[in-house]
Amino acid sequence: MPQAYIVDAIRTPVGRKNGALAHLHSADLGATPIKALMQRTGVDPAAVDDVIYGCTETIGPQAGDIARTCWLVAGMPDHVPGVTIDRQCGSGQQAIHFAAQAVMSGTQDLVVAGGVQNLNLIPMGAAMRVGDQFGFPDPFSTSRGWLARYGDQEVSQFRSAEMIARNWNCSRAEMERFALESHRRAIAAMDGGLFAGEIVPVGNFAVDEPPRRDTSLERMASLKTLVDGGSIHAGVASQNTDAAAALLIASETALRDHGLKPRARIHHISVRGADPIWMLTAPIPATRHALQKAGMTLDDIDLFECNEAFASIPMAWMRELGIPHEKVNVNGGAIALGHPLGATGARLMTSLLNELERRRGRYALQTMCEGGGQANVIIIERL
């Protein structure tokens, strides 16, 4: 089978709520890493076969196939197409999967994959709320088939996070310690310059905004939980943020024809589903499935990324699979660095690739929970 390679990966800094990117048009945001990627790799943009971007809440500035718009706003050739995909929180990672599959199938040789999201301009859930004017309060409750299968129970990531915390015995205090460590790791990485080589500035904005230097266990202990008697609160949840990231995925033919040196080989890609009401548990079976399909064990993996949608998600995943925290989200996760939905998968892969190179490891695995009870898994091999 033809192989797919990561030539390079670049991201913008992450903007926090009401932060530096709050008023930037999503197309201008998404175009930024594309321009930098073309400049840094030296690839002729005219040779790119497709642009695949993840994005959710595709209304307003994110409507109309934002992948295509980002490419054009970046000043790139108009004969190169683009497509926008929505696998909820995993959209950016799915973009990488689709790009790799196109290359592995032999139908394409050079693909830009990534994602963009501005949650300040278009808040999470906006696309669902727009449905109200047409008589649809949510995507599920007016479907007779859905009601017949799942009833009228609440479909909510917040409910899922609480259910997971209870089922895997993740106490509030433990989740707060996990969240504090996420901030500590992210701040240490920032202060150590570990993100500098992967970030392209947006104007004068060049440093991730979300990590909270003043957070503490005492401050988190004072936060109100989302539901009475619950354990999930804002301090143990990912932050709504803005960012974009882009990767260049290439075939062996493209590497040779364009004189490119790959940084990693895509060793495995897969996707699995789980119960949509529990919603956020899918990384557990997805990781098991991926390792089995790849003929690997956890000991083969040097680094892991499991998106911190809520602290209970990676905590349950680590407990269920026996993965040490020392190898997971080593430079902080979404609790500290934010979760720009459609861009997160590409942002995580960019940071994971850089850290794998720094540590001179061989394999890294990335997974993340997604709406609908789904999870992507990708395993890369450093070259």
Automatic annotation (TrEMBL):
Signal sequence segment: none
PANTHER family named among the record's database cross-references: ACETYL-COA C-ACYLTRANSFERASE, BLR7806 PROTEIN
Keyword presence, Repressor: no
Pfam families linked to this entry: Thiolase_C (PF02803), Thiolase_N (PF00108)
UniProt-listed InterPro entries: Thiolase, Thiolase-like, Thiolase_C, Thiolase_CS, Thiolase_N
GO MF terms held by the record: 3-oxoadipyl-CoA thiolase activity
Organism: Aminobacter aminovorans (Chelatobacter heintzii)
Alphabetical list of CDD domains matching this protein: thiolase
Enzyme class label: transferase
Keyword field: Acyltransferase, Transferase
Active site: C89, H339, C369
Keyword Acyltransferase: yes
UniProt-recorded name of the protein: Beta-ketoadipyl-CoA thiolase
